[in-house]
Each structure stands twice: as C-alpha cells, then as structure tokens.
Recover the amino acids of this structure.
C-alpha cells in the first residue's frame, strides 16, 4: 500500500491556481495552467499508474483507461493528490458557486482516469461532458494533466472557447448525427478553437462541463499519457445516481405525442 502524503507535502508539489487563471476559465471555459504540479510529481504519478496497470492488465482489459486510481489507497499518491485541500480549493474557486449562492458548496470526486493514447490512436470526438453525463446543473469540471510531454501532433486537447455559455448542444456519444463540430460546422468561426497546446509534464488544462472539446489523432510514434480527474458540486443530480455517460441514453420525442410543427404550408 502506498503512503499517503501530508497536505504540506502536497503543497510542495501542487501549486495554487492564480486569480488570472480563474478569471480566464470563467471567460473562456478552459484554462492552461503551466506546471500546476511539479514535473517530478507528474513522473511519479505516471510510474505508479503504469506499474498498477501492468500488474492488473487482465482485469483492466487491453488498451482500456485505468479508472479509480484516486479511490484506491494502494495507488498513492493519486488519492492524496485528488483529495488534497489544495486541489479542492483550486477546483472550488473555478466552480465558483459562491457567485450566485453567497457560499461555496462542497465538491465530490466524480471520476479519475489514467489514459494512454498509443502511437496512431484516433482522436477524441468533440463533445460537452455535462451533456454526456446528464447532470442537472452546471459546476462539473474536468482536469487534464499531462504526465509526460504532449506535443500538438500527439493528440493534445483543443477547446471551443466560450462554448460553455451556449448551454447543452446535445449528447453525441450514442448518436448517429456526428460530433458537435460536424453538427455545428460554424462553431470554430463564430466562436474560436483554442491554440494547439504543447504540454510539458505537470502542465494541466481544466475545462467546464459545457465547454466543447476534443482532440486530433496521435500521429506520432510516442504514446500520449494523461491523467483526467473530475469533481462536481455535491448537490448535483445525475441520471440513476451515477456519474457515467447516461446523458446520451435520453430519447428524442416521438411523433404521436409530440408531432413536428410545420414551417411551410
Ligand atoms: O483525452 C482526450 O482526448 C479526451 C478527454 C476528454 O474528453 C475529457 O477530458 O473530457
């Protein structure tokens, strides 16, 4: 079993999110936080995560992301990191429920994933997390931490700036209409796509639950390693009380009860 880190040890390797980063996130729906964690700490997370994945490769399944490292005491320091006061404060400031409520609400762990995109892996389709998860309110946010260098051509994340203000544009994980950029081809000209990022180990982006995001293919001969971890306000309601991809299980209305209104006679 790995040793839990003290808050003081965490603070030595994980910094506070700055006021400028919080303001940028609220405006654009995403922000790049260079060296949010020390590169050596990112390397330690990668080593522990890979060793765990190698030891449990049969139960995880080939090529599958490793889920739940932060809920497992055997895979410290993932747990100490994600459940640290420092990260809770960072995330709470980004969520900013205080703005309308006067007080912040506690956050819950939602999910965490160690993700490897091998050389040649397909990109990630453009979607909004909260539309996929079916949560009933805003607040959920997702951190994407580079555990090793990620160049743009390795499938670095891209975000549609300010798309978090557009509300839900539809769940696409279980649909035949294409992803959000295919369904709304004017998006990158009306709004703007974030620049292609070159992450160094320890660099981290965070995006709002309604920010449209995706990633290109990994066209290099190097694997892309990242750690995704997500919190949501404790009072959020989810489909079936589960934070999985239930949003795209919702059904369209049918013609018998809800006929289409004609636009032309
Ligand atoms: O890692 C990726 O390419 C996609 C990750 C993603 O969709 C997310 O962080 O919400």
């Amino acid at each position: 079993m790995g040793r839990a880190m003290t808050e003081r040890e965490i603070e030595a390797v994980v910094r506070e999110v700055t006021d400028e980063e919080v303001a940028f996130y609220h405006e654009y729906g995403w922000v790049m936080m260079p060296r949010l964690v020390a590169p050596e700490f990112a390397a330690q997370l990668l080593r522990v995560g890979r060793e765990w994945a190698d030891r449990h490769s049969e139960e995880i399944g080939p090529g599958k992301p490793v889920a739940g490292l932060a809920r497992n005491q055997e895979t410290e320091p993932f747990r100490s990191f994600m459940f640290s006061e420092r990260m809770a404060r960072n995330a709470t400031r980004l969520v900013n429920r205080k703005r309308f409520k006067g007080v912040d609400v506690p956050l819950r762990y939602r999910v965490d994933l160690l993700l490897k995109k091998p050389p040649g892996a397909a990109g990630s389709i453009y979607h909004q997390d909260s539309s996929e998860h079916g949560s009933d309110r805003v607040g959920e946010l997702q951190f994407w931490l580079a555990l090793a260098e990620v160049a743009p051509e390795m499938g670095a994340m891209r975000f549609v700036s300010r798309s978090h203000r557009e509300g839900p544009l539809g769940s696409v994980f279980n649909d035949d209409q294409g992803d959000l950029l295919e369904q709304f081809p004017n998006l990158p000209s009306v709004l703007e796509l974030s620049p292609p990022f070159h992450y160094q180990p320890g660099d981290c982006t965070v995006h709002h639950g309604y920010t449209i995001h995706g990633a290109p293919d990994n066209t290099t001969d190097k694997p892309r390693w990242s750690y995704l971890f997500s919190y949501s306000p404790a009072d959020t309601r989810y489909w079936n009380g589960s934070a999985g991809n239930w949003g795209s299980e919702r059904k369209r209305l049918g013609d018998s009860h809800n006929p289409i209104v004609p636009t032309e006679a």
Q: What stands out?
A: The chain has a mean pLDDT of 95.
